[in-house]
Design goal:
15 helices; 399 residues; Aspartate Aminotransferase, domain 1; 2 domains; Aspartate Aminotransferase, domain 2; 14% strand
Length: 399
C-alpha cells in the first residue's frame, strides 16, 4: 500500500478551528453558545468593495493574472505602505497571495531549507508552529510569559540571534495576546537585529490598523532603515477590512524575495482571482472610515473585557493594546473542579467552560502558553456582556 508523504504527519488541524467547529456543532444541537474562539472581525467591508467586485464580474476577462499580483493591487498596496509609515517600496518589492497564511507558508518555502533555524516568541499564532513543522525547520521558541507582558526583550532576541537562525519571525500587534510594541521597544529590538546580519526578518503585522491607546504602529525598518534589505513585511485584508473569506495576503520586502515568491505562486496558485483583486484594490484605495470606526469599537470592547477579568480573583491579564484578543493567565483554576468536571489544565478549563456555560474559548497551549486561554471579543455586541458574565460565574463556582 503506498504511503503518504512524511510531511502530512507533521501537519495538524487548526486548534482554533476545532474549538470553533465544536461550538458550531453544539449550537446546531440547540445549545445557547457564545463563541469567543475564532479570530474573525465580524464586520463587512464598505459598499464600494462590493461595487468593485460586481464591476469586475461584468468586465471579467476569464484570463490568468500575474503571479506577483496585478499592477493595480500592487500600486494600492504600495500606497497603503506609505500611509502606515513604510514608504520607499515599489511593485518589484511586493507580491500577493491567498491570505496571510498562504504568504507565510510560501515565505517559509522561499527562505528556509529543511533544518534551518526559525525563531519566534511564545505565545505564538498557532500556524507559525504548524508551518515550521511541515517545512522541517529547526524551531527555536523564545518564551515571553505574562510576567514580562508577553513581550520579547532585546536580551532574549540577542541571545537567540547569536545562534544564527535563518529566519526571525515577529508578530506585532500580537495574536493571541493583543500586545503592541511601543516605538522605543521596536527601536531596541531593531538595534539588536542590526548586529546579526545573517538572519532574515519576517514581520507579521496584519493587525497594524488595530492599535489602541495612541501607541501607534511602529516597525523595525522605520527604526533602522538598513534592515530593509533583509526584512519582509506581511499584511492582509482580513482583519482590517472585514474580509477574511476573500483571502488576500500581501508582502513587501527585498526584490529578490518578492520575485522568488512570485515564482512559487506560478507553481502553487498562479494568481489571486480577478474579482477578489478588484475588491482588494477598492478596500486599500477607498474610504478608510470603517477600519477606523472598528478600531475605536474594539478598543472600547477591550476595556469591557479587561474590567470583567479584573473581577475574577487570581486571574492575571497584561493589558493588550491592539488586535481583538485578550490572553489571561487562568492557572488559578487548575486543580479545582466545576461540579463533576475536574480542571487539570487549560484544555480541561475550556472544555468545562463550554460544557457548563456555553462559552467557547481557545486553550492557551494552542499558542504555546498552557497557563492561559484566548478570548476573541469580536462576537456580536449583544453577546459580549452575557459571555463575560458566564465566565465570571464559572470561576465563582469553582471548588
Amino acid at each position: 500500500m503506498p504511503q503518504l508523504a512524511a510531511r502530512t504527519g507533521r501537519a495538524k488541524p487548526s486548534a482554533i478551528m476545532q474549538v470553533a467547529e465544536k461550538a458550531k456543532r453544539l449550537k446546531a444541537e440547540g445549545r445557547d453558545i457564545i463563541s469567543f474562539s475564532i479570530g474573525v472581525p465580524n464586520f463587512l467591508p464598505g459598499p464600494h468593495v462590493y461595487a468593485a467586485a460586481r464591476d469586475a464580474l461584468d468586465r471579467d476577462s476569464g484570463q490568468y493574472g500575474a503571479n506577483r499580483g496585478s499592477d493595480a493591487l500592487l500600486d494600492a498596496f504600495v500606497a497603503h505602505l506609505e500611509r502606515i509609515g513604510l514608504p520607499g517600496y515599489a511593485r518589484a518589492n511586493c507580491a500577493s497571495g491567498i491570505g496571510a497564511k498562504h504568504v507565510l507558508y510560501t515565505l517559509a518555502e522561499v527562505l528556509l531549507d529543511e533544518g534551518d533555524g526559525l525563531a519566534f516568541a511564545t505565545p505564538y499564532w498557532t500556524t507559525y508552529l504548524d508551518i515550521a513543522e511541515i517545512v522541517g525547520a529547526d524551531i527555536r521558541l523564545l518564551p515571553c510569559p505574562p510576567e514580562q507582558d508577553y513581550k520579547l526583550t532585546p536580551e532574549q532576541l540577542d541571545a537567540a540571534l547569536a545562534k544564527k537562525p535563518k529566519v526571525f519571525l515577529f508578530n506585532n500587534p500580537s495574536n493571541p495576546t493583543g500586545m503592541v510594541y511601543t516605538r522605543d521597544e521596536i527601536a531596541a529590538l531593531a538595534d539588536v537585529l542590526v548586529r546579526h546580519p545573517d538572519t532574515w526578518i519576517v514581520t507579521d503585522d496584519i493587525y497594524n490598523a488595530m492599535v489602541f491607546d495612541g501607541i501607534g504602529y511602529h516597525h523595525v525598518v522605520q527604526a533602522r532603515p538598513e534592515l530593509r534589505e533583509r526584512t519582509v513585511f506581511v499584511d492582509s485584508l482580513s482583519k482590517t477590512y472585514g474580509m477574511p473569506g476573500w483571502r488576500v495576503g500581501l508582502l513587501a520586502g527585498p526584490e529578490r524575495v518578492a520575485t522568488a515568491f512570485a515564482t512559487m505562486n506560478s507553481n502553487h496558485i498562479t494568481n489571486v482571482p480577478e474579482v477578489v483583486t478588484a475588491a482588494a484594490v477598492a478596500a486599500l484605495s477607498g474610504p478608510q472610515d470603517i477600519p477606523e470606526a472598528k478600531r475605536a469599537e474594539f478598543q472600547a470592547r477591550r476595556d469591557v473585557v479587561m474590567a470583567a477579568l479584573a473581577q475574577i480573583p487570581g486571574v492575571v491579564c497584561p493589558k493588550p493594546a491592539g488586535a481583538f484578543y485578550v490572553f489571561p493567565d487562568v492557572s488559578v483554576a487548575f486543580g479545582k473542579s466545576h461540579g463533576d468536571l475536574r480542571i487539570g489544565d487549560d484544555v480541561d478549563l475550556c472544555n468545562a467552560l463550554l460544557e457548563a456555560k456555553g462559552v467557547a474559548c481557545v486553550p492557551g497551549s494552542a499558542f504555546g502558553e498552557p497557563r492561559a486561554l484566548r478570548i476573541s471579543y469580536t462576537c456580536p455586541e449583544a453577546q459580549l456582556a452575557p459571555g463575560l458574565d458566564r465566565i465570571r460565574a464559572f470561576f465563582a463556582e469553582l471548588t
